[in-house]
Structures are given as structure tokens and as C-alpha cells.
Amino acid sequence: MIPLRDTIPSTRVPVVNYVLIVANVVVFFYELSQGPHIERFLRTYGLVPHDFAVRNLLTSMFLHGGWLHLLGNMLFLYIFGDNVEDRMGHARYLAFYLLCGMAAGAAQALTNPYSREPMVGASGAIAGVLGAYFLFYPRARVVTLVPIFFFLQVMEIPAVFFLLFWFLMQLVSGVATVGRAATGGVAFWAHVGGFIAGMVLGPVLRERSAPPRWA
Questions:
Q1: What is the pLDDT of residue 214?
Q2: What percent of the chain has pLDDT over 70?
Q3: Is the pLDDT of residue 174 over 60?
Q4: Helix/strand/coil (H, E, C) string of 143-190?
Q5: I want to staple 17 with a disulfide (CB 3.0 to 4.6 A). Which of 28, 81, 106, 146 is the partner?
Q6: Which domains, and CATH codes, for the chain?
Q7: What span, in angstroms and rounded, lies between the C-alpha atoms of 135 and 112?
Q8: Rounded Cα gap, residues 159 and 10, in angstroms
Q9: Residue-wise over 135-163: b if at least 16 C-beta within 10 A, else e?
Q10: What is the reported pLDDT for 106?
């Protein structure tokens, strides 16, 4: 399922969300400029659980493993991030995003502490955004491109179902990796940890000046 947009308009310009998207794209192009040294670059600034460094919890969330990785993450951030920023305000949203990303990285490192593969990507932080959106906008709908046999169908899916399905897929996939040797791939436990962090931090960082908008 590929989300195309949601049905909740923002009431203010999501400046921070735009800046985060641009930052991820700029860093990705810088990453590509490393040429033959890109692997060393990813190992230096990606999160390697076996050689855990707190600094890399932050730097790793702005790196990506390829175009599809980047575009998929930025699509989710663009669709869901503006509404979460709307509910938190700019400064709180930035703090929320970074904290969720760091929590996600820590969750992945804790579940696979001996891995020597660098973990990169914004998906852990974005999972936090999804967790907060799940709480803030349970009645929203997500316009989604759904493959049905050999056809693509555009459908409106309740956000609560879309996000719950996404989370359960990450959880099931994460459980399936327990006990396996790390060979790279998707950091499912980062997604799980990020989503839970978003659900915990979202209500804490929500602006109190306006009543909850349970749209």
C-alpha cells in the first residue's frame, strides 16, 4: 500500500517538516558525492550497534541506503509530518522528531547489539511521526494506492487502520528476525521503537493552547 495524501489540512505552514525533507535530500546528495568512499562514510556516520556511539543516533537518521529508501521515507514524512507539526508547533515538533529517531536507533541497537552493519535512514523518526498521528487523528483517512491482483486501486482507508496495519507488519517482521544473524536489511525494531516513542512523546509535546483536534 502506498499512501498518496491524507484528508486533514494543516492550519499553518509546516516549516520544520519541509526543512527536514530538504535536509535529508541534501545529505543524500552529499552521501552520493563520496563515490568509492561511500561505504566508509556510512560506517562512520551510520549507527553500528557493535560500535555504538551516541552521536551516530543523530547522524544516522539523515542517511539513506538508496533512492527508493529516501523517496519512500520522504513520502511518509510529507504526508503525515505536517499534521503532527501542526499539533505540536515548530520547535516541539523538531525536538519530537529527533528524540523519536534516537529512540528508534537505540531500540534497534538493543535488539541486535552485536551487528556490525550500519543502520541508516529516517524511518525510525518517521515511525514516531506515525505513532503521534495515530493518536492525534484517528478519524482521518489516508488516500492510498492499493494493488488488487494485477490492478491498482485508489482507496480512502481510515488512518487508524492504515497505521495499525503498518505497525503490526513491522512488529511481526521484527519478531521474525529475532535470533538471526544480522546481514543488513530493514531495521524493523527501529520502526517499532520509533512508533512507540511517538505515541509516548506525542501527547507530552502537544501544544496545550488548543483543545485536541480528534479529526
A1: 47
A2: 93
A3: yes
A4: EEEEEECCEEEEEEEEHHHHHHHHHHHHHHHHHHHCCCCCCCCCCHHH
A5: 81
A6: 2-205 (1.20.1540.10)
A7: 29
A8: 16
A9: bbbeebbbebeeeeeeeeeeeebebbebb
A10: 94
